[in-house]
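Training component of the fellowship. As part of building independent skills, the fellow (R.M.) carried out the full modelling exercise for a liganded target. The chosen ligand was S-adenosylmethionine. The inputs are recorded below so that the supervisory panel can assess the work.
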Amino acid sequence: MNANKALWEKGDFTRIAASMRESGDAVIESLGIGSGMKVLDLGCGDGTTAIPAAKRGADVLGVDIASNLVAAGNRRAEEAGLANVRFQEGDASALGDVADGSYDLVTSVFGAMFAPRPGDVAKEMYRAARPGGRIFMGNWIPNDPTLVAQILRISSAYSPPPPEGFISPMTWGVEEHVIERFTAAGAAKENISFERDTFTFRFDGTPAAFVETFRRYYGPTMNAFDAAAANGKEEQLAAELTELFEKENRGNGTGKTVIPATYLRVTVAK
Ligand SMILES: C[S@@+](CC[C@H](N)C(=O)[O-])C[C@H]1O[C@@H](n2cnc3c(N)ncnc32)[C@H](O)[C@@H]1O
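Fellow's submitted model of the complex:
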């Protein structure tokens, strides 16, 4: 059993991704994607960034380890009438038949950071980009005071310790690790740059309902609730997460939950 795949197929990330569409589009807008550009989007989920890239005329391949999200991505592309994007199952750390240097832009927004073996992920991203091309990653930042790092902090307290040798996905939010991984893959250090930006989750409902959506559909949070339930602490975890979501919510009075979160933008020029 591939635990990485099982984790992401466990829930239905589309339920969370629905709150990420606007910022996903803004990330793509910031990358200056033009017609005919070849884009590879890794850990693409159901297309939060792949579909906006295709809407701007790029020729897009989305790769994700979760078969349910690949199917959802292909459905969304069809519904949008886009023939220039397709989704296929694959592992960001072992891309198989993706030819060397075949993409103008290799992106991964909160995707490839979740693959085990981060060194292999950097090698694959760098290998797939053409000379003169670019790699772009959006990565969550460990110990950041905003939403995602805080969900992890709270959830970890209810979960068993990770297995020996586990490398946290959040290490992708630390510049030194990113530099180490991409220089080992062949990039020049001066071609790697960083910026911090804000990604905003927009959910149509209360913060408590948004927590409930994570609880029912987001694999990592589902696991945290399973672990908490084993100790009779499910409701304590729900209460802590609700307090966090309420504190971070900027949608007060609108009936919607609007939560900005800080992330690290990584750009590697090849
Ligand atoms: C937090 S979700 C983000 C999805 C999408 N990028 C978005 O912003 O909506 C993480 C995604 O990474 C995918 N993923 C995790 N490990 C992966 C791997 N080894 N290779 C490819 N995709 C992976 C998951 O299936 C999931 O779709």
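The panel noted the following from the submitted structure. The chain has eleven helices and seven strands. The chain has a mean pLDDT of 97.
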